[in-house]
Amino acid sequence: MKISSLETLVLYLSKLPGLGPRSARRMALHLLKRREGLAYPLIEALKSAADTIKECSLCGNWDEEDLCSLCRSETRENYLLCVVESVADLWALERMGSYKGAYHILGGTLSALDGRGPEDLKIEALVRRIKESQFEEIILALNATIEGQTTAHYLKEYISQNAASNLKITHLAYGVPLGGELDYLDDGTLMTALKERRFF
What we know:
Blueprint: H1 5-13, H2 21-33, H3 35-52, E1 54-55, E2 62-63, H4 69-72, E3 77-84, H5 87-96, E4 101-105, H6 123-132, E5 137-140, H7 146-162, E6 168-171, H8 187-195, E7 198-199
Parallel strand pairs: 3-4, 3-5, 5-6
Antiparallel strand pairs: 1-2, 6-7
Helix pairs in contact: 1-2, 5-8
């Protein structure tokens, strides 16, 4: 039996984070009611983004250029490097506006359960950046989950052994709740956690 275009739309919308079948149906109806003002512009925006957005070759952020706007900026503090799990975490830290250093996106965390080891993350690229740059401090801003903390401890040891043993390595203060994810935290909690970071 052939699936209708409406059912196909609902199916794809329901695959988005935070949307189940009921929310996807409501969203589909909303889009179809507002085709000219919303659905068609959304289609164009999605196509444009899918065709032009790529991963920054240095930090892993998303941009239309090979180097993202943050890496191209001449006003960033080039002695600070903040290591995060995902682009969403970078956006969460940028949202508060008080951190002005560089970023490095790992692309995930270590997880034996999911079969993700060090070779699946951008750890070697991180070590190369540290060796080739003049960073004074590496901030490990990983989620306060078991996987995040395991990855942070692994990175601390690996960086100390393979990049620079005298480098200052810090992590976010424990204003971030255990099990919390950066993208879901309010700006005040994030700002306090970043300001109160501690040595490993």
